[in-house]
Amino acid sequence: MSAIPVIETDRLRLRAPSEADFAQMQEYLGQERMVFIGGPFDAVGVWRTLLGMLGHWSLRGFGFWNIEHKETGQLAGAVGFLHHFDWPEPELGWNVHHDFEGQGIAFEAASAARAYGEECLNLSQVISFIDPQNTRSAELAKRLGATFEREHSLRGKACHIYRHPKHTPHQQKAFS
User: Are 141 and 110 within 8 A, CB to CB?
Assistant: First the structure.
Protein backbone atom coordinates (compact mmCIF):
# COMPACT_ATOMS: atom_id res chain seq x y z
CA MET A 1 0.00 0.00 0.00
CA SER A 2 1.33 3.42 -0.89
CA ALA A 3 1.73 5.91 1.93
CA ILE A 4 -1.26 8.16 2.45
CA PRO A 5 -0.05 11.76 2.30
CA VAL A 6 -0.78 14.28 5.03
CA ILE A 7 -2.21 17.64 3.97
CA GLU A 8 -2.25 20.56 6.38
CA THR A 9 -4.30 23.73 6.22
CA ASP A 10 -4.51 26.52 8.77
CA ARG A 11 -6.97 24.62 10.96
CA LEU A 12 -6.98 21.06 9.64
CA ARG A 13 -4.85 18.00 9.11
CA LEU A 14 -6.03 15.60 6.40
CA ARG A 15 -4.48 12.27 7.33
CA ALA A 16 -4.80 8.54 6.96
CA PRO A 17 -7.78 6.93 8.67
CA SER A 18 -6.82 4.72 11.61
CA GLU A 19 -8.39 2.23 13.95
CA ALA A 20 -8.09 4.87 16.69
CA ASP A 21 -10.73 6.89 14.78
CA PHE A 22 -13.35 4.14 15.03
CA ALA A 23 -15.25 5.44 18.10
CA GLN A 24 -15.46 9.01 16.77
CA MET A 25 -16.50 7.73 13.35
CA GLN A 26 -19.27 5.66 14.97
CA GLU A 27 -20.49 8.71 16.85
CA TYR A 28 -21.13 10.79 13.74
CA LEU A 29 -21.67 8.18 11.00
CA GLY A 30 -24.47 6.67 13.06
CA GLN A 31 -26.50 9.88 12.83
CA GLU A 32 -29.67 9.96 10.70
CA ARG A 33 -28.22 12.90 8.77
CA MET A 34 -25.75 10.46 7.13
CA VAL A 35 -28.60 9.14 4.99
CA PHE A 36 -27.15 11.09 2.05
CA ILE A 37 -23.98 8.97 2.06
CA GLY A 38 -25.62 5.58 2.63
CA GLY A 39 -26.07 5.77 6.41
CA PRO A 40 -26.78 5.91 9.16
CA PHE A 41 -24.19 3.24 9.85
CA ASP A 42 -24.10 0.69 12.65
CA ALA A 43 -20.77 -0.44 14.12
CA VAL A 44 -20.25 -3.01 11.35
CA GLY A 45 -20.99 -0.39 8.68
CA VAL A 46 -18.52 2.03 10.27
CA TRP A 47 -15.86 -0.69 10.39
CA ARG A 48 -16.47 -1.48 6.71
CA THR A 49 -16.27 2.22 5.91
CA LEU A 50 -12.92 2.48 7.70
CA LEU A 51 -11.57 -0.57 5.88
CA GLY A 52 -12.92 0.72 2.58
CA MET A 53 -11.23 4.09 3.06
CA LEU A 54 -7.88 2.38 3.54
CA GLY A 55 -8.48 -0.16 0.78
CA HIS A 56 -9.33 2.52 -1.75
CA TRP A 57 -5.88 4.06 -1.28
CA SER A 58 -4.32 0.66 -1.84
CA LEU A 59 -6.29 -0.15 -5.00
CA ARG A 60 -6.51 3.26 -6.67
CA GLY A 61 -3.64 5.27 -5.21
CA PHE A 62 -6.12 7.85 -3.86
CA GLY A 63 -9.01 7.86 -1.44
CA PHE A 64 -10.44 9.54 1.63
CA TRP A 65 -8.54 11.28 4.40
CA ASN A 66 -9.89 11.74 7.88
CA ILE A 67 -10.10 15.40 8.82
CA GLU A 68 -8.48 16.20 12.14
CA HIS A 69 -9.13 19.57 13.76
CA LYS A 70 -5.61 20.66 14.71
CA GLU A 71 -6.58 22.77 17.73
CA THR A 72 -8.69 20.09 19.43
CA GLY A 73 -7.28 16.90 17.90
CA GLN A 74 -10.85 15.76 17.28
CA LEU A 75 -12.02 13.98 14.16
CA ALA A 76 -14.01 16.58 12.20
CA GLY A 77 -15.07 14.38 9.26
CA ALA A 78 -13.61 12.93 6.09
CA VAL A 79 -12.83 14.17 2.59
CA GLY A 80 -11.29 12.77 -0.54
CA PHE A 81 -11.74 10.88 -3.76
CA LEU A 82 -13.64 7.74 -4.64
CA HIS A 83 -13.80 5.84 -7.90
CA HIS A 84 -15.71 2.64 -7.36
CA PHE A 85 -15.78 -0.05 -10.03
CA ASP A 86 -19.24 1.00 -11.24
CA TRP A 87 -18.78 4.79 -11.22
CA PRO A 88 -18.19 6.72 -14.43
CA GLU A 89 -15.26 8.74 -13.04
CA PRO A 90 -13.63 9.83 -9.77
CA GLU A 91 -15.67 11.77 -7.24
CA LEU A 92 -14.65 14.37 -4.67
CA GLY A 93 -16.72 13.75 -1.57
CA TRP A 94 -16.93 14.95 2.03
CA ASN A 95 -18.74 14.46 5.30
CA VAL A 96 -18.45 16.50 8.47
CA HIS A 97 -19.04 15.60 12.10
CA HIS A 98 -22.14 17.47 13.34
CA ASP A 99 -20.07 19.27 16.02
CA PHE A 100 -18.07 20.95 13.24
CA GLU A 101 -20.87 21.98 10.86
CA GLY A 102 -21.18 25.61 9.87
CA GLN A 103 -17.50 26.40 10.51
CA GLY A 104 -16.16 26.13 6.95
CA ILE A 105 -14.45 22.81 7.71
CA ALA A 106 -15.82 21.00 4.66
CA PHE A 107 -14.92 23.90 2.36
CA GLU A 108 -11.38 24.12 3.72
CA ALA A 109 -10.83 20.36 3.57
CA ALA A 110 -12.40 19.87 0.13
CA SER A 111 -10.44 22.79 -1.32
CA ALA A 112 -7.16 21.33 -0.03
CA ALA A 113 -8.02 17.80 -1.19
CA ARG A 114 -9.07 19.01 -4.64
CA ALA A 115 -5.85 21.01 -5.11
CA TYR A 116 -3.75 18.04 -4.00
CA GLY A 117 -5.73 15.70 -6.25
CA GLU A 118 -5.12 17.81 -9.30
CA GLU A 119 -1.47 18.62 -8.65
CA CYS A 120 -0.30 15.27 -7.28
CA LEU A 121 -2.82 12.58 -8.26
CA ASN A 122 -3.77 13.59 -11.81
CA LEU A 123 -7.40 14.11 -10.76
CA SER A 124 -8.60 17.19 -12.59
CA GLN A 125 -12.13 18.55 -12.90
CA VAL A 126 -13.59 15.76 -10.79
CA ILE A 127 -17.29 15.37 -10.10
CA SER A 128 -19.37 15.18 -6.95
CA PHE A 129 -22.47 12.98 -6.78
CA ILE A 130 -25.05 14.80 -4.64
CA ASP A 131 -28.48 13.62 -3.59
CA PRO A 132 -31.02 16.15 -4.93
CA GLN A 133 -32.37 16.62 -1.38
CA ASN A 134 -28.93 17.30 0.10
CA THR A 135 -29.08 21.06 -0.33
CA ARG A 136 -26.17 21.71 2.06
CA SER A 137 -23.77 19.62 -0.06
CA ALA A 138 -25.08 21.21 -3.25
CA GLU A 139 -24.41 24.66 -1.78
CA LEU A 140 -20.91 23.61 -0.75
CA ALA A 141 -20.21 22.24 -4.23
CA LYS A 142 -21.28 25.60 -5.71
CA ARG A 143 -19.15 27.49 -3.17
CA LEU A 144 -16.21 25.34 -4.32
CA GLY A 145 -16.94 26.53 -7.87
CA ALA A 146 -18.57 23.32 -9.09
CA THR A 147 -21.48 23.60 -11.47
CA PHE A 148 -24.48 21.35 -11.98
CA GLU A 149 -23.79 19.13 -14.96
CA ARG A 150 -26.63 16.63 -15.15
CA GLU A 151 -28.97 14.27 -13.39
CA HIS A 152 -27.70 10.73 -12.95
CA SER A 153 -28.73 7.42 -11.46
CA LEU A 154 -26.12 5.99 -9.12
CA ARG A 155 -26.85 2.43 -8.04
CA GLY A 156 -30.54 3.00 -8.62
CA LYS A 157 -30.73 6.30 -6.73
CA ALA A 158 -31.23 9.67 -8.36
CA CYS A 159 -28.37 12.10 -7.91
CA HIS A 160 -27.02 15.28 -9.37
CA ILE A 161 -23.54 15.48 -10.80
CA TYR A 162 -21.58 18.64 -10.10
CA ARG A 163 -18.38 19.28 -12.06
CA HIS A 164 -15.48 20.94 -10.25
CA PRO A 165 -13.35 23.54 -12.04
CA LYS A 166 -9.73 23.14 -12.93
CA HIS A 167 -7.45 24.28 -10.10
CA THR A 168 -5.99 27.69 -10.79
CA PRO A 169 -2.31 28.38 -10.08
CA HIS A 170 -3.03 31.44 -7.92
CA GLN A 171 -4.88 29.31 -5.34
CA GLN A 172 -2.86 28.76 -2.19
CA LYS A 173 -1.32 25.31 -1.92
CA ALA A 174 -2.42 23.39 1.16
CA PHE A 175 0.48 20.94 0.99
CA SER A 176 4.19 20.88 0.37
Answer: no
Please identify every stretch of the chain with a pLDDT value under 70, giving residue numbers as ranges. Answer: 1-2, 29-41, 167-176
Contacts of 9 (CB under 8 A, 6+ apart): 108, 109, 112, 174
- Within 8 A by CB and 6+ apart from 42, the residues are 30
**Could you tell me which of 157, 80, 170 has the C-alpha nearest to residue 123?**
80
According to the model, what pLDDT value does residue 97 have? 86
Peptide bond into 132 cis (omega under 30): no
Contact residues for 148 (Cβ-Cβ < 8 A; gap 6+): 138, 160, 161, 162
| Angle between helical axes of 105-121 and 135-143 (0-180°, round to 10) | 60
Q: What is the pTM of this model?
A: 0.87
pLDDT given for residue 2 in this prediction: 62
Please state, in angstroms and rounded to a whole number, the distance separating the CA atoms of residues 160 and 33: 18
Q: Which residues of 129-153 are buried (b: 16+ CB within 10 A; e: fewer)?
A: bbbeebeebbebbeebebeeeeeee
pLDDT score recorded for residue 155: 86
